[in-house]
Specification:
Chain B: Belongs to the sbp family. The complex is a heterodimer of chains A (236) and B (121). Chain A has 236 residues and is an alpha+beta fold. Helix content of chain A is 48%, strand content 19%. Chain A has helices at residues 2-25, 36-90, 108-112, 122-134, 181-190, 193-199; strands at residues 95-97, 99-106, 137-142, 145-147, 153-156, 159-162, 165-166, 172-178, 202-207, 213-215. Classes of the chains: A alpha+beta (236), B mainly alpha (121).
Chain lengths: 236, 121
């Protein structure tokens, strides 16, 4: 009995498939019996649909265009932002902020005694700058000249010079912008550098001005020697 | 015997009554599946007449052949080779063989029963 049942089930499925296939192959061809007016009406309907579709397409295309322009603008904006950011980082922009003023001058007692005033050693200035950076200074300028990562301080013809500007007029004033000026002042005052300056007959005074400091932009051109721009995109 | 014929008829009527439509692209697969189904069906009838019928073999063969045939056709479409022709050929040949065997067996049975009737007379 069970045998017969399964066999019947299979025949049922086969019959079903056969009927569907038969239906599929013998789909009647619907002949077109519309007259002229009906055809015209249908054509009109289709034309309306077409007009609606074209309208929709133009709307969507307008949207796409607006998105594209927005995208391009935002790209430009991002590039501009990045450029400004990089310029700020490189020290090519004026910068304002809270900070400290470090002034270095010869010890007055020595001048009174008639001793010859020597120039500040470039090594000392570099060490002071490094210490200040270590203690949290963000940007530094010396005697109105911005100190940047490619700046050089060295002895030229017996005079200490930074990027070619002599640091011989006293007091040599260094301005540093930092988030926490008081802390920077305390840490510089507490460092051993003060003693080194004293050995060279200089005294260092550190003030925290009440207002904001303005550091000038770096004025020279920055020479990039070992980097080249990639011209055609590259592979990111 | 009659139950299976009845099932076939029910299946056909159901197929005609139900408005079940298959996309035209798949009509090839369905035709091959139908062929496979009939091949298995006649194979089953022959096996029954030869007393070799095994239900498991029959049912699994039915579904497996259908799926295999459709799969072969599908592969053929994607390879650009008319593989469904192979299926049609194989199933067609087997169909004819099975039907011929069924005919012979039936004739044999009929002739035996006629001889018996003659003897009885």
């Amino acid at each position: 009995m069970k045998k017969k049942l399964s066999f019947s089930l299979v025949t049922l499925i086969a019959g079903f498939m056969l009927a569907i296939q038969f239906n599929l192959v013998n789909q009647p061809v619907v002949s077109d019996t519309r007259d002229m007016w009906e055809l015209k009406n249908d054509l009109l309907k289709e034309q309306q649909t077409q007009a609606e579709l074209i309208e929709g397409i133009s709307k969507l295309e307008g949207k796409i265009a607006s998105y594209e322009t927005k995208k391009n603008e935002s790209k430009e904006e991002v590039l501009r932002d990045t450029l400004t950011e990089l310029k700020t980082d490189a020290g090519l922009t004026e910068i304002r902020g809270n900070g400290v003023i470090v002034s270095i001058q010869p010890i007055k007692a020595d001048i009174l005694l008639g001793e010859k005033v020597e120039y500040i050693s470039p090594v000392l200035i570099i060490r002071l700058i490094n210490e200040m950076y270590r203690y949290g200074a963000d940007e530094i300028s010396i005697s109105g000249q911005r100190y940047i990562s490619t700046s050089v301080i060295r002895d030229i013809n017996g005079q200490p010079k930074m990027d070619g500007y002599p640091l011989v007029h006293y007091p040599v004033e260094m301005q540093a912008i930092t988030v926490n000026p008081k802390k920077l002042k305390q840490r510089i005052e507490g460092s051993e550098l003060m003693d080194d300056f004293f050995i060279d007959n200089f005294e260092v005074q550190i003030k925290v001005p009440s207002g904001k400091l303005t550091l000038p932009a770096y004025q020279n051109a920055i020479n990039v020697e070992h980097m080249e721009p990639i011209m055609d995109g590259g592979e990111s | 015997m009659w139950l299976s014929v009845f099932g076939l008829l029910i299946g056909i009527t159901l197929g005609f009554l139900v408005d079940f439509d298959i996309p035209h692209e798949y009509s090839n697969y369905l035709s091959i599946a139908v062929l496979a189904a009939f091949d298995t069906l006649f194979g089953g009838i022959r096996a029954h007449l030869q007393n070799l019928y095994d239900e498991v073999v029959f049912v699994t063969g039915f579904f497996f052949n259908i799926i295999l045939a459709a799969g072969l056709a599908f592969l053929g479409v994607h390879l650009g080779v008319d593989l469904y022709l192979a299926a049609i050929f194989v199933f067609g040949v087997r169909l004819f063989q099975n039907i011929a065997l069924i005919r012979r067996i039936l004739i044999e049975k009929w002739s035996i029963s006629r001889k018996k009737q003659k003897k009885n007379l």
